[in-house]
């Protein structure tokens, strides 16, 4: 049971700033994650946006950005574990992302989780994420599995 506690600590340090402004932390983390995703895709780190705008967004880019934010997502999950006896399960989401990289809509396709408060917090957090720019808008399925 060391791992959920470790994820909780990582989530707090990754998503907080000295002045306590979480929006600033999310903004800084978004830029870091976009650069991380671009570097993993072997795109020029000096100007990754220019090259990303010329092509379609790939599912692997969505995965990289969400995985980069998994510490905060699992912090939300561990908070939900305190209020629910067995919160494990999967959430299948459908993300609509504009060509500028903003999440325009999120729909829950299927879920095993019954904690509506957690699901609302998860959706609100993912809506704040910023993805790489692309040639056009896109719609992407994404599944997140949560285990005890």
Keywords:
about 150 residues; about 20% strand; globular
Architecture overview:
Residues 1-22 have low confidence and may be disordered. The chain has six helices and three strands; from the N terminus they run αααααββαβ. The protein has helices spanning 2-14, 22-40, 48-52, 59-68, 70-83, 116-127, and strands spanning 89-97, 103-111, 138-146. A three-stranded antiparallel beta sheet has the order 2-1-3. It has one domain (2-146).
Count all strands and give the number: 3
The biggest beta sheet, please?
Answer: 3 strands, antiparallel
Q: SSE string, helix = H, strand = E? A: HHHHHEEHE
Helix content: 40-55%
Q: So how many helices? A: 6
Query: Whole-number radius of gyration?
Result: 16 Å
Strand content: 15-25%
List the helices and strands and how they pair.
Layout: H1 2-14, H2 22-40, H3 48-52, H4 59-68, H5 70-83, E1 89-97, E2 103-111, H6 116-127, E3 138-146
Helix pairs in contact: 1-5, 2-4, 5-6
Quick overview of this protein structure:
The protein has 148 residues and is of the alpha+beta class. The chain contains 6 helices and 3 strands, in the order H-H-H-H-H-E-E-H-E.
């Amino acid at each position: 049971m060391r791992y959920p506690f470790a994820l909780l600590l990582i989530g707090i340090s990754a998503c907080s700033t000295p002045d306590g402004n979480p929006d600033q932390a999310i903004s800084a983390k978004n830029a870091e994650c976009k650069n991380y995703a671009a570097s993993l895709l072997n795109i020029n780190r000096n100007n990754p946006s220019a090259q990303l705008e010329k092509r379609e967004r790939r599912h692997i880019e969505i995965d990289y950005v969400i995985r980069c934010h998994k510490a905060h997502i699992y912090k939300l999950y561990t908070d939900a574990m305190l209020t629910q006896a067995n919160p494990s399960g999967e959430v299948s989401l459908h993300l609509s992302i504009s060509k500028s990289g903003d999440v325009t809509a999120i729909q829950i396709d299927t879920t095993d989780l019954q904690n509506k408060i957690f699901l609302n917090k998860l959706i609100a957090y993912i809506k704040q994420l910023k993805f790489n720019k692309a040639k056009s808008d896109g719609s992407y399925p994404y599944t997140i599995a949560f285990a005890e």
